[in-house]
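Backbone-to-sequence.
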């Protein structure tokens, strides 16, 4: 039997804590539930031997990490795959430890196999799954750990892993849509940039030399020759300046104020700002619905959700909403006052709070907001290539004019003679 420390709420609403002996976490939760206690926290009781085991486990994990360098990296697609497999194994009725071993045998990627090996080792020595995952650095994000912790505490790990699979699959779909749609615009931009540099630095000077450098050139040609001379003479300086500027920009984005200003600017960009806001709303709706369905309180859920939006300005708005909710306001009121959330979402949350079905309504609405996000991405990525082609046409047209005007002027002058 294993000793667990717990915190719970009894039938009268009072907070209690203590220890309970059980073979595993599920049995501990079930025994406490039979006594009328709602478990809010459950952890392995720490003893001196447990501390020594944890230290040995940590050393083993570090040792394994050293040998796994160069064997690949665990990415978001790998996490989605093992979460889906773990969910299927748990729903089949297998114990957690057996599930981890089964999934480890199925994977082929060395880095993922090492990760599952470390998790299996830690769980087999008494750690909970969330504790084992938390020791893997930033492999599992805050949302993932919170969902697993909720599943362990409530004895619903099968449901939470299933919800996590849906969340992660949606995130991968958004990433894939953006990556696929942005491929063509990036190719157009790169080819156009290279073409302009070649024309200005190599083709145009040859044309001008064939005409005669003493000839009075039109102003578009003089502008282009000036740019050509600057690139030829100081191109290395431009390159160094661009690299330095990029590094400084990245460093500025690493600061809280810099990221806040940049994220606010992105939301104000026409079309692109709407796309980012729509994606964030869909992510907020599905994540908040999943967390509240798992039994997480609104305040705890908001703290987790704010780190998943990908925008610091919207995260600050969630902090303000959480502050108002903590002060006694409903969730819908501060969200409506912020102005960053669509009226439909505010109405859904308001109805959910009144009916007690907030999680159900949020999860039902998540598909609608996700569909809007997909449509917004498609429209933006259909508009962006057209704008890039138009810009490229203007630039190329100016270059062609600068190259042809001297020839036309020379021919007209020869004809007049």
């Amino acid at each position: 039997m294993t000793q667990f420390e717990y915190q719970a709420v009894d039938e009268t609403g009072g907070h209690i804590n203590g220890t309970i002996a059980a073979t595993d976490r599920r049995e501990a939760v079930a025994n406490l539930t039979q006594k009328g206690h709602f478990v809010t926290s459950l952890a392995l009781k720490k003893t001196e031997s447990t501390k020594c085991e944890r230290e040995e486990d940590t050393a083993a994990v570090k040792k394994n990490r050293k040998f796994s360098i160069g064997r690949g990296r665990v990415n978001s697609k790998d996490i989605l795959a093992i979460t889906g497999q773990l969910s299927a194994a748990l729903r089949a009725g297998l114990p957690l430890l057996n599930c981890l071993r089964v999934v480890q045998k199925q994977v082929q990627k060395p880095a993922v196999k090492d990760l599952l090996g470390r998790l299996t080792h830690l769980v087999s020595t008494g750690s909970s799954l969330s504790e084992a995952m938390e020791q893997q650095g930033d492999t599992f994000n805050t949302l993932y750990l919170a969902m697993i912790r909720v599943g362990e505490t409530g004895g619903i790990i099968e449901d939470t892993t299933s919800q996590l699979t849906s969340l992660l699959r949606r995130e991968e779909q958004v990433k894939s849509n953006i990556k696929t749609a942005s491929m063509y615009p990036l190719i157009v931009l790169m080819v156009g940039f290279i073409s302009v540099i070649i024309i200005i630095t190599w083709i145009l000077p040859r044309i001008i030399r064939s005409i005669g450098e003493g000839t009075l050139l039109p102003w578009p040609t003089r502008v282009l020759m000036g740019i050509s001379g600057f690139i030829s003479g100081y191109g290395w300086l431009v390159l160094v300046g661009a690299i330095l500027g990029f590094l400084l920009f990245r460093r500025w984005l690493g600061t809280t104020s810099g990221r806040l200003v940049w994220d606010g600017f992105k939301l104000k960009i026409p079309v692109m700002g709407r796309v980012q806001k729509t994606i964030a709303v869909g992510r907020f709706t599905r994540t908040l619905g999943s967390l509240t369905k798992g039994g997480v309180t609104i305040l705890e859920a908001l703290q987790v959700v704010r780190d998943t939006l990908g925008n610091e300005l919207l995260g600050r708005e969630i902090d303000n909403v959480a502050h108002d909710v903590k002060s006694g306001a409903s969730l819908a009121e501060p969200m409506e006052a912020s102005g960053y959330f669509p009226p439909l979402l505010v109405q859904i949350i308001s109805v959910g709070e009144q009916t007690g079905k907030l999680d159900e309504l949020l999860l039902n609405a998540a598909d609608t907001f996700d569909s809007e996000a997909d449509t917004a991405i498609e429209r933006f990525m259909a508009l962006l290539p057209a704008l890039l082609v138009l810009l490229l046409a203007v630039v190329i047209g100016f270059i062609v004019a600068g190259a042809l005007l001297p020839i036309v002027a020379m021919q007209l002058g020869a004809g007049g003679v």
